[in-house]
Amino acid sequence: MGIVEAIRAGRILTMSSEQPEIVDGGIVVREGRIQAVGPWKEFAGVGTCRDLGPVTIVPGLINAHAHLELSHLAGLVPAGLGFSAWAERLFAAMRLGRASGALVAQAVDEARATGTCFIADVVGREAGMVRQALDEQAMDGHLFREFSGRVKGNDFCPDSLPGSWSPGVHALYSTDSAFARFIKAWCASRDLPFTLHLAEVPGENELFQSGCGDFADFLRARRILPKDFAPPGLSALGFARELGLLDERTLAVHCVQMDNRDVEIMASSGASACLCPRSNSWIGVGEAPAAALQAAGVPLCLGTDSLASSPSLDLWEELRAVRPLLSQNATLYDFVAMLTCNPARVLGIDADYGSLEAGKRAAWATVPSDLAACV
Ligand SMILES: [Zn+2]
Predict the structure, then answer these.
(1) pLDDT tier, 159 (very low <50, low <70, confident <90, very high otherwise)
(2) Are residues 43 and 77 in the same domain?
(3) Ligand 1 mean position to 66 CA, how many Å?
(4) Could you identify which of 104, 184, 229, 326 might form a hypothetical disulfide with 330, taking C-beta atoms 3.0 to 4.6 angstroms apart as the criterion?
């Protein structure tokens, strides 16, 4: 039978279409799953009662972009350097040491303390450590095994990682375009989510338009640019579209260097944009056109990025940072959608997460009072 618990809260934003907001609401939970959600008066006397008080609760938060394996670099790469200098300092710091399981576990623990219940994490060589830390901390997550450079056709056989994962592309300036196309097709054929860093760096568009500029010089000097790179004469967004990388299962991360045509490309593709405003500010790459993306109907998600470019994995802080970039008419529902139902949909985890409805996991977060006061 299992223990039945009834949770009471002053307000519940369920993020479901049927009853999006319930004042004086209740959630009935059995064995970690939601049995029912509704007005508290319907649940009086059901199971063990836990009263959370006059708070607003929402579905457990989803961090749509992190790099937990960089957790040991917290505070080691200074802010405000610009992308190339930030990357140089990052590479230097990475050469000095690797993450430890304890530091990754600590980062996961801090994320959970601020309401996160799921992390979509980009991993490289520490994939096993990250998965172990997630498991040990009882945090759910999807790993994006990141690829860059060039892999010859049939040689691509991604390591089998424990738990749910899919391959991703670092960025179009660091990955051979045919390889990027191949990885996206691989994900699409298995109905898996796909991700890449896109339109983050000033100079990215100039690189793809003409092959020139400071960023192009930086990439060539560091041998990051694929050997046979030829500028397609498109913006970063235009290039991603031409390669067939943008659709409903694609999470394009950053989306800063975009004009109105690029916003239209995103909107018509159905791809989701994962904004990381604190990372963008830390590195100094500019601000994403969040209001324009939202107005065009692009599903927005939020990610903290790594502790090498963000002060914390606290998604509420990420939300506070993106708020001034959104339309003044944006509501609390719009804000919370970026942390719940939107990432759940693109990651394909909406059977378990993204809304508070019967059958889903009993994971919720309490909205901080300053944000709960938003209409
Ligand atoms: Zn990143």
Answers:
(1) low
(2) no
(3) 6
(4) 326
User: Residues with beta carbon < 5 A to ion ligand 1?
Assistant: 305
CB 105 within 8 A of CB 313: no
Residue 46 belongs to domain spanning: 4-59+364-372
Decide if 354 is inside a domain: no
For residue 43, the CA-to-ligand 1 centroid distance in Å is 43
Q: What is the pLDDT of residues 108-135, one digit of tens each?
A: 999 999 999 999 999 998 999 999 999 9
Quote the ligand 1 centre to 279 CA distance (angstroms): 9
Quote the pTM value.
Answer: 0.96
* Ligand 1 centroid from CA 288, angstroms: 15
Query: Residue 151's pLDDT is what?
Result: 74
- Can you give the CATH number for the domain in which 165 is found? 3.20.20.140
Element (H, E) at 11: strand 4-13
For residues 226 and 291, state if they share a domain.
Answer: yes
Question: What's the CA angle centered on 61, arms 57 and 62, to 5 degrees?
Answer: 160
Q: Which two tokens stand for residue 124?
A: 């490289």
